[in-house]
Amino acid sequence: MRSTYFTLQALCLFIGALSFSCVRDFPATAPYTPPTAPTDPQPPQTQPVNPNRLFINNDKVKLAIDLNMGGAIGYLSEAGSSENMVNNYDLGRQLQTSLYAGPYPYSVNGKDPVYFWRNLGWNPVQTGDYYNHPARVVSYQQGQNTLYVKTIPLIWPLFDEPADCVMEHWIELRDNTVHVRSRTTVNRADTNQYDARTQEMPCVYLNAPWYRMVTYKGNQPFTNGAVTELSERDMISHYTTENWTALLNADGRGVGLYQPNQFRFKTNGFGSGRVGKEFDVASFYMNADGFMQIDYNGVYKFEYTLILGSLTDIRQYVYSKPRPETVPNFKFANDRQGWYYYNVHDKGWPIQNELTVRWQRADTTKANFRVCSPFVYWKPTDVPKIYVQAAFTTKATTARLVWRKPEDYDFLDGPDRQIDFPIIGDGQFRTYEITLNGHAGWSGIINQICLLNPQNNLEKGSAMRLRSVTATPVQ
C-alpha cells in the first residue's frame, strides 16, 4: 500500500482514513495540515535498482526473485509469455511482505519518517524503503522449482534503516500456481504492545494491463456464483467469501491470490491508464488484508498461493482446497488464531494454551475495548450456541458478545448485534454457554464477533484468560 507515486486525491483519501476501529487500519491522528513547503527529499522516479534475478520455471509459470530488491518476487509470467506482470516502479511495489505496528509516528536512531508516511508507524518492507534503498538479502537457495530467501527488511518511511526483524520466504512452483510460505521473526527493543493493524500478507502489484479487480462477495460461496468486478480506485477492503481475489487483463487472464481462511482482501489502482510495463507508474494492487497483533518478540507465519490463468482456473484451484470453518472453533494452544485487540493488551508472546487479556481499557479516554475474532463466514442456523471457555478475574458480573454482518461497516453495538452473559470473576475456568438461537439479530450471515466488558470496570489486575471459543463444549 506504499508507493512513492501519490496523487493529491489519493493522499487526501489516505489521511482521511486514519481513524481507527476494529475494521479500520490506523490509529486516530490529529487533522492533516499540509506543510508550508516540501521538506522531504524526493526519491528518484526511475527504475530503483538494476535487476539481479534468480529464475525458476515449469511448463506453466516463470518466476524470479530479485536479490537487489530484498529477494521479493520481481518477475512473474505465464510460461508462454515473455511479458513480466509484476510492477517494479519503486521498492514499495513488487510482490512482497509488508508488516505494520506502532508507535505512530515511528522514529529511531535520530531518523524521522518521511512526512507523507509518518502514520505508517513501524513498517518493515521486504524490498526496501521510500528512498529506494534495497533491503539486504542474508542468504538464499535455489532449486529446480523452489527458492528460499532470508531478508533483513527496511523501515519504509525512514532513510536506510534496517528493521528489527528477519523475513524468510519459501517459494515453490506447483503446476500453474506459486505456493509461498512466509515467516517473520521480530526482535524489537520496544516492548510495548500496540493495537493490531491490517497487514500486507502479501501485497501484489501488477502492471497496468492487469486492471480488472475481480472477486466473489456473495453469500453462497463455492457455488460458482457471479463474481464482482470492482471499480473503486481508492484503497478499499472487501469481504470476500471464497478467500481469493484476482487481477485480470482484458482477455480475462492474470493472477489470483488465495489465502486459506482469509476473508478480507484489499484492491487499488495507482497512476492512470491500462497501458504500462514494469517500471511505469501505472499499476494495480491486491493484498490479503487480515489484522494481526505483532509482539516485540513474536514469530509470524502465513501462507498464500498465486494462481496464474483464467478466472475459471483460479476458482477451480480454490474449490479444490479444503473449505474454511463454518462454525467457531478457536482454541488458543500456541497462537492467537487470528484474534486481535483494540484498546486492550494481552500477556504477549509466546501464547501458551490461553490468551491472558487485561479485562480493562488500556486508554481510559476511549469508550471501550474489544477482543476481536478474525473475519469469518457463519450461517446462524449452524451456530445456535457459542461456548466461551474462560476465567475472569474482575468485579464485572457481565460480559458481552457482539457480532457483525457483511453489510455492517463496523461493529454496530446495539440490541440486534449483541448479547450479554453473566460471568463469575473469581479467576476460575468455566465454560460459558451463550444461546443465540432465537435472537432477532442472529440472522443472515455473521462475519465477525468480539468480546467486551459492557460495565467497563477498570480495577487494577482485572483479567480474562481465554482458552477457546467454539460451537460445542471443549472437554
TrEMBL record:
Keywords: Signal. Residues 1-24 form the signal peptide. It comes from the Bacteria. This is Uncharacterized protein. It comes from Spirosoma liriopis.
